[in-house]
């Protein structure tokens, strides 16, 4: 039940610190990631030369963050394939390919068919799933469960942050097994994981009212754009999907570098644009590129709403609004940056008088192809 919350979505957004903490719990020992479900699979992880992550919708955006984590830590080429595109061509997969599927429900037909197809082609399959005993994990060689708890609202929120968390754990684990992550790197990443729930709670506590107020002012907006680079890109896509799904407003997410290749033509005075700003501590270059993107859209009259880490003053001269997230490692930032976007979509839908839990035309679990 909703337990006093106005909607399941509001409850589930608020439950995100626990969703992350519960997904990490029992999987860390002495600065190392230990995933009991993956015991005995070290040879498999040493033998693979390619990872394909397959999923639909929000889970496919978690997959994009997972790609970066697996490539950075495990040093294995990783690609993301939308499950419904995967088997309608002739993908290059074989026994050295690990196909990781991501599904909250574990029943999404498109994703299930992709997993079955991968198995038939001889690939090894690993599922990241939030529902114990669901069909997709049963059809896979291995499973890492997310422990977000039941997600009722159609718009996925806490399952998404738990999926990213599970993929971070998986990337670190495989990196340690393959020797591409040092003990010191592992300990630092584990400390980041342990600090993450508190930081999510901080974003909720400090930015909820601010973001909800922004959404209230924007209830008549017809279109919102989202820009990000690196792991900010999938978060831009997720911010746009949340808004489309529950507030029925046209929204697009772009890789910020694509702007000058077309989308900047959309910018006209007053166009609201959310920009996910990566920390300058991780890459001064990446940060500078995003700040220059902000200047470009600002010069054309965009209304710029920036999501940036605490203390980043470089964004201040060019932003109409600044939403702050705590300092975190580069691959951990998406878990924090998505929270304001979820709150924005929810508050905007609420301001329009819509039912955020049951958006039109959508089902929680898509069990048809
Ligand atoms: O249950 P799954 O994770 O397999 O669902 C995949 C998508 O259908 C799902 O994430 C969908 O995009 C959500 N409604 C997004 O909020």
UniProtKB/TrEMBL annotation:
Main location: cytoplasm
Keyword match Transferase: yes
Residues covered by the SIS domain: 41-180, 214-359
Domain of life of the organism encoding this protein: Bacteria
Subcellular location per the Swiss-Prot or TrEMBL entry: Cytoplasm
Active site: 364
Catalyzed reactions: D-fructose 6-phosphate + L-glutamine = D-glucosamine 6-phosphate + L-glutamate
Enzyme Commission identifier(s): 2.6.1.16
Annotated keywords: Aminotransferase, Cytoplasm, Glutamine amidotransferase, Repeat, Transferase
Subunit structure: Homodimer.
Stated role: Catalyzes the first step in hexosamine metabolism, converting fructose-6P into glucosamine-6P using glutamine as a nitrogen source.
Name of protein: Glutamine--fructose-6-phosphate aminotransferase [isomerizing]
Gene that produces this protein: glmS
Residues of the full protein shown: 248 to 616 of 616
């Amino acid at each position: 039940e909703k337990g006093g919350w106005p909607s399941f979505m509001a409850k589930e957004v608020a439950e995100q610190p626990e969703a992350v903490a519960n997904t990490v719990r029992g999987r860390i020992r002495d600065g190392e990631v230990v995933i009991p479900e993956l015991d005995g699979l070290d040879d498999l992880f040493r033998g693979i030369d390619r990872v394909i992550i397959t999923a639909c919708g929000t889970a496919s955006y978690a997959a994009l963050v997972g790609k970066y984590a697996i490539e950075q830590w495990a040093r294995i080429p990783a690609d993301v394939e939308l499950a419904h595109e995967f088997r309608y061509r002739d993908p290059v997969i074989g026994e050295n390919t690990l196909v990781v599927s991501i599904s909250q429900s574990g029943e999404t037909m498109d994703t299930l068919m992709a997993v079955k197809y991968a198995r038939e082609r001889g690939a090894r399959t690993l599922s990241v799933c939030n529902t114990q005993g669901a069909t997709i994990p049963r059809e896979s060689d291995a499973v890492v469960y997310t422990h977000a708890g039941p997600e009722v609202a159609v718009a996925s929120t806490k399952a998404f942050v738990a999926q990213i968390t599970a993929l971070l754990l998986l990337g670190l684990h495989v990196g340690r097994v393959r020797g591409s992550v040092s003990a010191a790197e592992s300990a630092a990443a584990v400390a980041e994981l342990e600090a993450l729930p508190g930081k999510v709670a901080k974003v909720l506590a400090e930015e909820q009212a601010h973001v909800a107020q922004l959404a209230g002012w924007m209830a008549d907006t017809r279109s919102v754009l989202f820009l990000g680079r690196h792991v900010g890109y999938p978060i831009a896509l997720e911010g746009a999907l949340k808004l489309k799904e529950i507030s029925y407003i046209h929204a697009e997410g772009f890789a910020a570098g694509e702007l000058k290749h077309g989308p900047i033509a959309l910018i006209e005075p007053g166009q609201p644009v959310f920009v996910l700003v990566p920390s300058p501590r991780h890459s001064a270059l990446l940060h500078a590129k995003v700040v220059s993107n902000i200047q470009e859209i600002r010069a054309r009259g965009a209304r710029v709403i920036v999501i940036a880490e605490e203390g980043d003053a470089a964004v201040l001269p060019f932003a109409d609004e600044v939403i702050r997230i705590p300092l975190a490692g580069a691959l951990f930032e998406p878990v924090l940056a998505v929270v304001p976007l979820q709150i924005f979509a929810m508050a905007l839908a609420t301001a329009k008088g819509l039912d955020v839990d049951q958006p039109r035309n959508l089902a929680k679990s898509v069990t048809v192809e």
